[in-house]
Amino acid sequence: MRLERETQAPQRARTPSLWARLVFTSLAALSPVSGAARAQGDASPAAASMGDTTTLSRGRYLVTAADCAACHTQDPAQAFAGGVALKTPFGTLLTPNLTPDRETGIGAWSDEQFYRALHLGLDARGEHLYPLFPYDAYTKLRRADVLAIKAYLFSLPAIRHVVARPKLAFPFDQRWLLGLWNALNFRPGEWQPDSTRTESWNRGAYLVEALADCGACHTPRNLTLGAQTDAQFAGAMVGSWRAYNITTDPVGGIADWSDADLTAYLATGVAAHKAGAVGPMAGVIGQSLSLLPAQDIADIVSYMRRVPGIRLRTQGQSRFSWGRLSNTVLDIRGNEDLAHASGRTLYYGNCAACHGGNGGGTPDGAYPSLVHNTVVGASEANNLVMTVLVGVHRTVQGRAVAMPAFGAVLSDAEIAALANYVLNAYGDPGIAHVDAPIVAAWRAEVLPTPALVTVLWCGVGLFFGVLVGGVFWWWRRRR
Amino acid sequence: MAHCNSDPYTRRDVLRVGACAAGTLAFVAPARLIALAPPAADATPNAAARIALCRFLCGFPKLDSRLVAHAFAALGAVDRGFSARAEALGLAITTAGLPDVQAFRDSPLYGDPTHRATALALLGAFYLGFVGNGDAAQLISYEASLMFASTQDVTPIPSYARGGPGYWGLIDVAAPG
Amino acid sequence: MATQFDADVLVVGSGVLGSLTAHALATAGKAVILLEAGPRVPRWQLVERFRNVADKSDSNRPYPDQAWAPKSSGGSHSDGYLQNVGPLSYRPGMLKLVGGTTWNWRSACWRLLPNDLRLQTLYGVGRDWPIDYEALEPWYGRAERALGVCGNAADDQSGHGGGAYPPRSEEYPLPMLPWSFYTRTIATHLRAAGFAFCDEPSARASQPYAQRPACSGMNNCSPICPIGAQYSGDVHATLAERAGAELRENAVAFRLERAGAKIAAVHYKSPDGRETRLSARAFVIAAHGIETPKLLLMSDVANASDQVGRNLMDHTGIGLTLLAREPLWPGQGPIQQGAMLQWRDGEFRRRHAANKHALGNAVANRPVAARLLAQGMIGPELDRRIRHDAARYVQVTTAFEMLPEPGNRVTLSSHKDALGLPKPQIYYDVDDYVRAGAVVARQDQRRFVEILQAEVLDADTGWRNGDHIMGSTIMGADPRNSVVDGDCRTHDHENLFLATTGVIPAGGVVDPTLTGAALALRLADLIGRSV
After folding, report:
1. How far is C307 from C475, CA to CA, in rounded Å?
2. Is the dihedral of CA B48, B54, B57, B62 positive or negative?
3. In angstroms, what separates the C-alpha of C213 from chain A's closest C-alpha?
4. pLDDT of C458-477, one tens digit each?
């Protein structure tokens, strides 16, 4: 399926309902606190009745792998107390308090209630949870693992934090409608290992499908914002960011990355001279993936190496094959108009100090090259522009990596000119037509109205239209 | 892949000469830099000879022709006789059949005060990157200044990164100097 | 009877001290207006302006040079601004733009020693501070956090080779930057010869800190850090605005209007000459150590003591440039690292000035190439020698402690600037205290030459500006011989405060900005609680 490149306004019907989860992850990644502290919170000595240390450490590990903190921890000193605001096209949801506080958290929940939340997407009252909470992934968790997670959460300090129940606009406040959504998009059931596959593949599948839920960002969405199961991992939007195609397609996906590259990227956020995690992915690596054992990363790679290859976008060459070193500073040195700066001038003034006058970064790779760079060479400019706007904030194993944000220093028009210069010089010149309005839209993380909303309103309209029409016909018949 | 932090030695079309100085700012647009009109020198047939002379003196065959144009414009602006002296120097070098700048340095030509001054004026422009002093100085180049060429493997060109944060703390032994 | 004010607090000057003050007060909920004489210029433009400047010998030159708000040098309007009438040319760094002079500094952030504040009592020279180190200490910690200072708290910064000193109640917010091979090697040699060599604490982010990236040694701290790893005053100017302060640029304050014993309003001129009057409950002048006394003199306020403008001090110094025998490679890391401190404090201060030898670490290609070309060197030998000499170039700058002399002063010149305001006139000279200190320093210099087996390139620089303006609005307990009290409040006007290193009555040998920042935070706290 070949679609147009997404370089204009973000298209409708391709926006997942789980954007905001990862918008928040990007915000969380701005925190200077190390990933380790975020994921684990303040673990107090385990209450003896809550479970033995094996269960607790398994629960802690699972919580790290699933990165619950990304959505449920606002302040690292108050781990899992919820209250994080997640913007969706339907309104803003606040994440619940998962600490064992009996009134404001889940302290009164039984094992069965907790299992049903993750397995069936039902809250303690039996009402549907919004699928912003990825129960479509967590349904795959084994019951023992779900209870280990619960035991771990219950071992943490109870924090009193009232989180308001969401109030979305009609008809999205009608929770029973989610039953329809589930019917279309959700298949509950624990993960069943595939005995024809290796152990590593099976462990990788469990990590990817049940825990890390890579598809939440990387799988495009269908009309009802459920996952497009026939296009798994083929790439999708996360707010203004693009989660790239990570299937085995050699051009559109990551088949031409070496195992060493993939492993390094997942474990540290950097594949030298090729890729560095930006935006929400920086947070995923810092708070979750970088804290997993090396075998887990190997298992994830093993699984991802065997997913079907899909190419949903026209892409002439892989993301890291674009660009060549070029230094054009002589065009401006001594001949520069700073009041009406060209993209080139903006590049030299803002970027070249770190990324090099020729775009090659530093020899040690600490400041990455923009040439053969998977963000610069992507077939959409989103991540390049977003990175310029908000910078990079990645803390891996306690070590912070930072690129400053330029959103407060440069206007939308300046960022557009700068992006076009970089794309022309170091990326895909075919998409070097970024303009100020699109930068403004990305900056605002404007969530477009998904087709689902239109369909639902049409449905409502149709229903009332039929009702009114039917009443009118009956009245006419009576006369 | 070469990882020079700045690699200004590329061939490009000749652009117009610009002069830059913070002192020429106007009130209305304080950040605007004024570019001079292209010098008549660009149109003369001597351009090739000048480029050849400068590349010879610098020992750098890839010296950008724009820098040559900037240097002659700047040096000529301070001293009208400069281009004539440069032409004379070029001619003397060609006539003497000197193969390279070492030969020039060792030859009686370099002992001639006029030729020496002319050569040093040009070398100053390309090595240091400017001509003149203070407010009236004219920029020839910054990143492309030849004074940086021989140390690029060790120290940065100021305002550009040589390595990532704290890179210098990892260096244990001095590079050969 | 309610009086309408334009603001609760009016701050003149958006440099580091004014912006820290404005930010603290705005965060405390006060209505703040912050005036800045110069324009607002983003960092990327300053970086490109630097690269485009032809003659880079004056680090001020990349900065905007405007007729209505001249710098101290580096432009046609600025070069004729300061009128020096004394034997020495006092021309310290001064910029006029949002963020002030700390766009162009080397960010050394030392604390004073407890003894520095008791110069007269301990050594019988100069003046005592009216407050002691204990009063200032907690504010030093806050200032270090605000500026993001990296340093080694274990050092004995008094130069006596003992334990950690001066005392501190909190750690440096950032670990010290690693030493380059150059710094490590020189430190080893000098320490072996008995010199006390210490890390120089600086306002550089050694790790990402508060939206600033980490320092990666672009070696351009002065004139401009390309990435903002080094602190500059615009950080707090921006934070002040985000906290609700109103920043007005291109607003040159020229008169403080008195009403009885208080200050009622400030008058400022725009570049076109138009005048505006703003009233406030309290006023903080943070216009740098030359413009602050100039404003007070033009307004004829706060000067019952006749000390405004007097007691002008700097850390006037001498320089030494060497070629070491072995390659050391200055230019890796920040442009300055490390200092020798054995003449920082001791009984000798009865007789001669204390000093600090600071080790320069700037890339040396430019002076090296200029020198070799001046010798007529050309060809491949020129390139070889540039590399050879640049690898061995060692620069030491020695700063001397100064004593307050009433004859060293800023007054109003009869020459007027573009706005019709008097230019600053400066009389400045060093005294025998400093000259005696220089004798000792030169002995040290001769030892450095021996230790490094070096060739001397320049030991005869003459007296050099240190860019550290102190004393010009001097602090003291006695209103008869000082301008402000220990809280930086002018003796004459209870609602007029001065946030400037010009209040410093005794500056030791260390860069005064951190001390100024501590005083600014302290006075902002006082104003915040009382206005």
Report:
1. 10
2. negative
3. 6
4. 998 799 999 999 999 999 99
Q: Provide, as residue numbers in chain A, all residues whose Cβ is less than 8 Å from the Cβ of C241.
A: none
Q: What is the DSSP annotation of A143-168?
A: HHHHHHHHHHHHTSPP-----PPP-P
Cβ atoms of residues A280 and A237 within 8 Å: no
**CATH class of the domain whose range is C7-50+58-151+162-530:** alpha beta
Domain boundaries, chain B: 47-145
d(CA A206, CA A303): 9
pLDDT band at residue A30 using 50, 70 and 90 as cut-offs:
very low
Q: Of C52, C227, C228, which is closest to A334 when you measure between CB atoms?
A: C52
Q: Report the predicted TM-score, pTM, of the whole model to 2 decimal places.
A: 0.90
> Could you give the CA distance from residue A67 to residue A73 in angstroms, rounded to a whole number?
10
Whether C437 has a pLDDT exceeding 70, the answer reads yes
Cis-peptide, bond into residue C138, ω within 30° of zero: no
- Cα–Cα distance between A139 and A219 in angstroms, integer? 17
DSSP code of residue C313: B
Nearest to A68 by CA among A9, A25, A103: A25
CATH second-level architecture of A331-443?
A: Orthogonal Bundle (1.10)
Q: CB distance B176–C327 less than 8 Å? A: yes
B134-171 burial code (b ≥16 CB/10 A, e <16): bbbbbbbbbbbbbbbbbbbebbbbbbbbbbbbbbbbeb
C257 vs C263: CA distance, rounded Å: 6
In contact, B159 and C220? CB cutoff 8 Å: yes
* Among candidate residues C439, C377, C467, the one with its CA nearest the CA of residue C73: C467
Residues A125-179 pLDDT 10s: 999 999 989 999 999 999 999 999 999 999 999 999 999 888 888 788 888 888 9
Amino acid A174: pLDDT: 85
Rg, C-alpha atoms of chain C: 22
Strands (E), C90-183: 150-151, 174-175
pLDDT digit string (tens) for A392-428? Answer: 999 998 899 999 999 999 999 999 999 999 999 999 9
C352, C357, C468, C491: the catalytic one is C468
Structure tokens at C415: 């020459």
Beta strands in A270-317 (DSSP E): 270-271, 275-276
Predicted local distance difference test score (pLDDT) of residue B43: 54
Which position has the token pair 């240097």?
B71
Measured CA to CA in angstroms, residue C396 lies from C23, C317, C318, C461 at distances of 36, 10, 9, 11
From CA A187, how far away is CA A178, in angstroms rounded? 13
Based on the residue annotation, tell me whether C267 is a catalytic residue of this protein.
Answer: no
Residue A448: pLDDT band with limits 50, 70, 90: low
Tell me the domain boundaries of chain C: 7-50+58-151+162-530
Question: Which token pair is C522?
Answer: 């302290």
Q: Which residues of chain C does A400 touch, with a Cβ-Cβ cutoff of 8 Å?
A: 207-208, 214
Residue with tokens 């390659």: C327
Phi, psi of C409 (to 5 degrees): -155, 160
Domain boundaries, chain A: 3-304, 331-443
Q: Would you say C290 and C472 are in contact if contact means Cβ atoms under 8 Å apart?
A: yes
Which pLDDT value is given to residue B88? 97
Q: At what angle do helices B65-78 and B113-128 cross, to 10 degrees?
A: 120
ipTM of the complex: 0.96
Q: Coil, strand or helix: which one is C64?
A: coil
pLDDT above 70 for A348? yes
Contact between B156 and C55 using a beta-carbon 8 Å cutoff:
no
Inter-residue contact A68 to A98 (CB < 8 Å): yes
Q: Please, are residues B120 and C378 in contact by the beta-carbon 8 Å criterion? A: yes
Q: How far is CA A332 from CA A344, A348, C56, C218, in A?
A: 8, 9, 18, 21
